[in-house]
Design brief:
Largest sheet: none
Structural class: mainly alpha
Oligomer: single chain
Shape: flat
Radius of gyration: 16 Å
Order of helices and strands: HHHHH
Number of helices: 5
Number of strands: 0
Distance between the termini: 12 Å
Helix content: 25-40%
Amino acid sequence: MKVHVKDDFWQLFPDAQISVLVVKGLNNTIDESDDPYFKALLDEGTKKARTFIADENFTQNEVIQEWRQAFTKFKTKKGARSSIEALLKRVSQGREFNPINPLVDIYNSVLLSYAVPCGEEDLAKIVGDFLEEHEGMNPSSTRV
């Protein structure tokens, strides 16, 4: 399988870096209430995320400004915000993250820790190469 990113993406973001991680054998159905690992992972990500929101005026934080600027280059509904902004907003409000499922918890912890877009796809459901069109291109989360 190959990962394809359209040329117009590279025209908008010529210095972008896209990483692909394939995880096999992950049990995404475990009962997280019996295992504190994923809650601890989210708590650690939240702690790291606080470094990105040092300014009390949330919208003035550098990472928020950077992602808003990038997000305006996508064709989205007016006022739409990135998943990074949504999660960092929750951190700035002192809200806690609770486990959802292992895969979501892992990528949310990465998103929080590094303030980068992150997402997932079930490769078993993709036929052919992985194209931007497979995901409906929601710019709030990069899924490649």
